[in-house]
Recover the amino acids of this structure.
């Protein structure tokens, strides 16, 4: 079986096909990346990214942000875990990355975000997401559940069971 995808940032065609060899443990992300490509994620991210870098050697902030997103999707709970993806060339091809950022690059991107930049970024990206929703006569509702379960004692999940 063979499938053709377009890389999110470069637009180049990437062909995925089955093989007996393990090419990437993260090949399942191809479906999510294809979704991002179809909804115009890269263009929206470029339009709303408040951080601009001028160095010709810099990795684009949009790519660094997406590398962080991909790292979280595969289970990273620390910036250092992003290193797991640095050597996966198949994943880089799906994203259209020439280089994958280091954990320091990802951390340094987030250090550039001030409160104003965070607000500007998320307002723009939220507006883009909401504009993608189809109109409904009844509108939409957002249900937020703020229930907190506190457990004490020596049971699994309790504060005292360490």
């Amino acid at each position: 079986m063979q499938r053709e995808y377009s890389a999110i940032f470069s637009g180049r065609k990437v062909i995925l096909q089955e093989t007996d060899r393990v090419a990437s443990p993260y090949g399942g992300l191809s479906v999510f990346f294809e979704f991002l490509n179809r909804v115009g994620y890269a263009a929206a991210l470029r339009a709303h990214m408040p951080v601009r870098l001028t160095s010709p050697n810099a990795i684009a902030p949009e790519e660094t942000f997406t590398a962080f997103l991909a790292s979280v999707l595969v289970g990273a709970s620390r910036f250092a875990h992003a290193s797991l993806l640095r050597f996966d060339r198949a994943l880089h091809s799906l994203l259209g990355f020439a280089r994958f950022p280091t954990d320091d690059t990802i951390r340094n991107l987030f250090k550039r975000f001030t409160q104003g930049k965070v607000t500007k970024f998320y307002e723009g990206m939220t507006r883009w997401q909401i504009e993608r929703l189809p109109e409904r006569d009844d509108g939409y509702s957002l249900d937020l559940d703020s229930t907190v379960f506190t457990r004490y004692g020596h049971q699994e999940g309790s504060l005292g069971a360490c």
